[in-house]
Amino acid sequence: MAFSAERSVAATSVEVDRGGRPASTSAHELAAAAQRLFLRDGFDETSVEDIAAAVGVSRRTFFRYFPTKADVVWVESDKELDEFRRLLAASISETDPIEILVEAFISVVDHGRHEDEWACGRAQLILEVPAVQARASEVYRQWRAVIAEFVGDRSDMPATAIYPTAVAHAMMAASAAGHEQWIANPGRGLRASLAPMFALMVPRRV
């Protein structure tokens, strides 16, 4: 797991087997179908075959996109992090770095209200499913590294210094807390759930 940038979800097409007829699907379509099944039937109870059948593709097609079924939850993660880096690099140096981080973070994880069902389901799985959380530790480490490097650069100190490290960990904790609030109150919207948590939890230098 605010955002003015509404991006269309990647839809790289591939030829798949569906009763001998060519068809196309996307990684996001598979991920969305998988999440619906995970939330309805349970993560452990849902097989790769169940996911593939729900979209009308083969098991082989599923594994073209994802090494494991837990990886479907992170379908947008690499693109989100790349966009986060781009927004930070393009930011104005005179602006408060925390304001830049918060706005950039929200902008890349909020895919717009039309994607709320998918994004809220993703957040629920990340927060609740151990197999998904195992992957989360590596994803969060990558985000923390980007945040700490940016804060260190804007504060003229090493990324490993106390303040950049504190900001990086606080931002990821605030994101988790904000997503919990959103799941409990989905009508509030993701930005409205995240922004107060960032304001309360992310330290600012005095």
UniProtKB/TrEMBL annotation:
| Keyword tags | DNA-binding, Transcription, Transcription regulation
Chain ranges of the HTH tetR-type domain: 24-84
Q: Which InterPro entries match?
A: DNA-bd_HTH_TetR-type_CS, Homeodomain-like_sf, HTH-type_TetR-like_transc_reg, HTH_TetR, MftR_C
UniProt GO MF annotations: DNA-binding transcription factor activity; transcription cis-regulatory region binding
The answer to keyword DNA repair applying to this record is no
* DNA-binding region location: 47-66
> Know the name of this protein?
TetR family transcriptional regulator
